[in-house]
Description:
Pfam families: Glyco_hydro_38C, Glyco_hydro_38N. With about 850 residues, this protein is an alpha+beta fold. It has four domains: about 5-275, Alpha-Beta Barrel (7-stranded beta/alpha barrel); about 385-430 and about 435-470, no CATH class; about 480-735, Beta-galactosidase, Chain A, domain 5 (Distorted Sandwich), CATH 2.70.98.30; about 790-840, no CATH class. About 20% of the residues lie in helices and about 30% in strands. The chain has 14 helices and 48 strands. It has a ten-stranded antiparallel beta sheet with strand order 20-27-28-29-30-39-36-35-32-33, with helices on one face. A six-stranded antiparallel beta sheet has the order 26-25-31-38-37-34, with no helix packed on it. A hairpin with a 5-residue loop joins strand 45 and strand 46 (about 820). The longest helix has about 35 residues, at about 345-375. About 50% of the residues are buried.
Amino acid sequence: MKRKVYVVPHSHWDREWYFSQEDSNVILSQNMNFLLDFLDAHAEFPSYVFDGQYSVMHDFLAKYPEKRELAEKLVAAGRLKIGPWYTQCDTLLNQTESVIRNLLLGKMGADRLGGAMAVGYLPDIFGQNAYLPSIFKRFGLENAVLQRGLYTAQVAENLNFLWQAPNGETVQANNLYFGYGPGKFLAADATYLEQSLLPILDKLAEMTPADTPLLLPAGGDQVLVRTHFPQVVAALNAQDLPYEFVLSNYEEFMSAVNFDSSVKTISGELTACQKSRIHNTIRSQRVDLKMLNARVEEKIYQQLEPLSVLTKKLGGTYPSSWINDCLRELFDAHAHDSLGGCNSDETNLAIKHRLLKIERVVDGYINILKKQIARGVGENAILAFNLLPKALTKNVKFVLFTREKTVRLKGLTQTLLKQDYISGGKAVKAMADGEHEIELPGYYRSEILAAVSFDGFGYRTFELENAAPNLLTGCQSEISNDFYEVKFDKGNLTLTRLSDGAVRSNWFDFEDATDAGDSYDYSPTDEDALPTFSGHFSLVKSQSSALVSQLTILSVLSGQEILTEITLEKGSKGIKISHKINNQRKNHRVRVRFHGENAEGVSYGDQGFSLQKRQNINPYLTTWREEGFVESPQAIYPLERFVCVPELTGAVSLYTKGLKEYEATADSLNLTLFRAVGLLGRDDLAWRPGRASGINNKIVETPDAQMLGDWQFDYVYQWADQLDVAEQYRAAEQFASNVLTYQLQSLNSFEERLERFELPQPEAMKNLPERLNLLTLPNHLFVSAFKKAEQSDASILRVFNPTEETVKLPDFAQVDLTEKLTDSLSVLTERDFANLEIKL
């Protein structure tokens, strides 16, 4: 009996790369017009997959609205497969919330055109998020087709498997062992059969049970539909071959596979680099874009959306269309090449401007909503907003404008961080004898850090008093708070944990290594080119107050100065660290190394809604060449928000925003600050033999990727007595920017984006209370999103439980990820998440 082969014609559509998005869309206009007309005229061509992302159709129809009716007809008939993604996003470089929203907007858009492809399609991203099976499942997607991240041994007996998320949910999956293009040049001649097609099919057959069909993706990057495929398939079937070919799609193939009890279950994140390159050091490429993206994500998910929920409850408007437009732009920047940074300088510049454009819109709306609420509270209101629906005590920065130099917030422990006198400028006044310039009185801009307690989701109002503030004053060469002492002594930096007196001498230093790689991968040089390390520190400044203490030190690395500010705040278990460097070196990688003693040879990086356990040394590291790995399996890992390492003296954690790459060794935790390289692709790297990644027939120079100029890197270090998962996530909540402040004032109209413009006040937003708490979640739940529902006036609160304990859920209705009502659970089991529908 012949083995059936499902031939899937498709296009993999890179939104941008070494070419711009404008280039891509111009090509798209030609290819998509041709494809739609061809499919309409040729019923013998059953279906075509357009890369599983809706964004290309969204952009196409914006320019060709007259083709919408035809597109709807073909999609509804199953002839054209689009979605469920909005874009093929990199799932390891952004918030998992972005992965969920990408699918939500993609599925909504594709469904409006007739229906999204019912497969979680992952043809080309550089590693798979561990929670994708559960996310797919809760979007109603029971199947996934993916290329990268698996070891050959995992799929040697069956390329079809059950893929399991950390919460236990599974989807049926197929591994594209030869990638998404083995049938791109499908033909029926003898040479092609003998040299290409049959060896591929024989290998796939060897790796698949005898009663299971084979999958042959037949497409490539930006390819035009192969109009001759029906004739080729007929010609192949007319020959005496052990295979029967059928022109089909991924949905039909997955329906034909028998996922019985013999099918293996594979768990968690998929980042193996045996058969397909993962580029595990791409996470430090163009880190400026990654930090900007992290800032924008945080402003949308942790600030604007919950602030909009609050505003809507108070009688204002939730800016749904603006937020979703920003998300679409954001997801254009999340495609695997885009956010990876492995692009031409022209493309990376466009990504940067796209992210800045989103940020301007988000900042503007945050400004408007804060002002409307403050107006409703009353004249001269000073507000602090807690946008996390939990009880919270946090050190919060206020920016205040006053005529008086001495200023305090009544009733708060606080420190004046900075104060500047600002000239009032001049105004033109019309008089009988003409216009006159009038000198306006000046005022003070003060930055105050204050400890604020919140009962839950809402806001508090504060008053000013004319009293002397608590100032930062000079101190000796050591600083401390309730948990730590940091001491500078003769060029060394010592950290003491006060709970037990544990000491860490020579706490951290910097490593600079020559980078002989390219935009995809770091590469060491020969064995003689060893990294250089920073020497002793020198003390620049030390200052302290009752609330905050700061130590500023200088170090020299490869002839370049790094200025580091270490901040301890009262009541905080996290040590804030900021590095500033003016980089003038090329082709190198800079990391900060925190010294310690790794207790178990493992690290934990957060991903999705739990911690991923990783080995410090990959078991294939000594045999990867002999076993045919396409890359060296270095134990360099991604993180979403933090990494934690169990040590002999507790657990060390680093909380970052956009710094996405770390390596844990027996004696240090190494956080990559940045890589600086100047080529898009390079052949024969030490850790990546063979061809250049991406395009290998053209050298693309990327001087902007050398990261020359001034950079600042901010993160938090924590040294706990033990590894406590819930406490790790509570520390992440503390580091997140989920509290905003606002002063209703008329002295300065340039501090926030839209202060100088006249704005209407919603009639319903008047006489608001001075203090408001709308919702307080229990401390054992953590929040991924708080937003308005897409199709109703309810709010959606996405919560998760990262621990191994079962926790109780509040009594709210529950929805799936498409935001449709589902069965409600009373508890949340280990490493699981839930979507609550709330009507405030």
